[in-house]
């Protein structure tokens, strides 16, 4: 994804005389950003995501810059004439992968989501949770530039939910954008760059959406050392919520738990690599809302 996805004056209604579900919606989704969408049941969240994904065309307004997009709907049609592996392989070829590459990607994503045992199972025989794992795998297997997730975590077990969190972090870390709806207010807490509420046909930004603490403590602190006076890699700063330097020169980088794997890989893969000296849970986020340059750590320890 190399340019912003933009919605300008977008409206959507069903039928020539149906009520407007969306009207006058303006939205910009930059590359590498993660956007949360909230709203009451029936407010138009799913309609907005379908428009973003290109499933529904806007009744009015225009959309520019839509990249290669993958979509996970709220309700996945599991009764399909494929096995889980066959379906993913087929979708991979539709997305431009060769058949061998699609088959390998299908195997890898089923393994990541703990569904490899169901690779040869007909889709119609899968449980809700297993079919949902296939649904999210099909959206990720070809590395989309825009990932649109409509309550994609619903029905997944805890391990698969955490894996989807990591997969979203991986895509945004390489410049893809993500837009998601989820009923859990703490989903990807501290990771989203922007949040909006759908209501009354419009779309309103939610201020300070990253300042709400999560009772689960969704962030971790990574302590790392580089060469003398070295600045951390830009890709590392892109996923952190705060950075501080201790008097000894160690950097303390706070990152949403879902993005910790990405941060660690970035630090260890830098040239020269950074030395990770500590990793642990952080206090719930209460203030820092965006990455910033390292600054001396306040001496308020007791």
TrEMBL record:
Q: So which domain of life are we looking at?
A: Bacteria
Give the matching Pfam families: ABC_tran
Domain ABC transporter, chain residue ranges per copy: 5-225
Per its record, what are the GO molecular function terms?
Answer: ATP binding
Q: What keywords appear on the UniProt entry?
A: ATP-binding, Nucleotide-binding, Transport
InterPro entries in UniProt:
AAA+_ATPase (IPR003593), ABC_transporter-like_ATP-bd (IPR003439), ABC_Transporter_VariousFunc (IPR051782), P-loop_NTPase (IPR027417)
| UniProt name for this protein | ATP-binding cassette domain-containing protein
* Species of provenance: Streptomyces caeni
């Amino acid at each position: 994804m190399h340019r912003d996805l933009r919605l300008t004056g977008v409206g959507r209604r069903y039928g020539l005389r149906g009520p407007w579900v969306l009207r006058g919606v303006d939205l910009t989704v930059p590359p590498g950003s993660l956007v949360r969408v909230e709203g009451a049941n029936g407010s138009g969240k799913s309609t907005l995501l379908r428009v973003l994904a290109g499933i529904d065309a806007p009744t009015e307004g225009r959309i520019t810059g839509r990249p290669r997009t993958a979509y996970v709907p709220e309700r996945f049609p599991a009764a399909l004439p494929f096995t889980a592996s066959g379906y993913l392989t087929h979708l991979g070829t539709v997305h431009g992968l060769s058949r061998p590459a699609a088959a390998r990607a299908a195997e890898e994503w089923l393994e990541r989501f703990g569904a490899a045992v169901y690779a040869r199972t007909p889709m119609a025989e899968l449980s809700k949770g297993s079919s949902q794992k296939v649904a999210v795998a099909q959206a990720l297997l070809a590395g989309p530039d825009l990932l649109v997730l409509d309550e994609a975590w619903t029905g997944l077990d805890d391990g698969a939910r955490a894996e989807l969190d990591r997969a979203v972090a991986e895509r945004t870390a390489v410049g893809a954008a993500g837009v998601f709806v989820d009923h859990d207010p703490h989903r990807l807490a501290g990771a989203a760059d922007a949040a909006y509420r759908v209501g009354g046909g419009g779309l309103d930004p939610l201020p300070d959406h990253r300042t709400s603490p999560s009772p689960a403590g969704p962030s971790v602190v990574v302590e790392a050392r580089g060469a003398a006076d070295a600045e951390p890699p830009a890709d590392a700063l892109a996923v952190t919520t705060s950075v501080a330097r201790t008097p000894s020169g160690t950097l303390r980088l706070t990152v949403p738990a879902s993005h910790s794997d990405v941060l660690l890989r970035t630090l260890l893969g830098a040239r020269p690599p950074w030395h990770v000296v500590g990793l642990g849970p952080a206090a719930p986020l209460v203030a820092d809302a965006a990455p910033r340059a390292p600054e001396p750590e306040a001496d308020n320890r007791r």
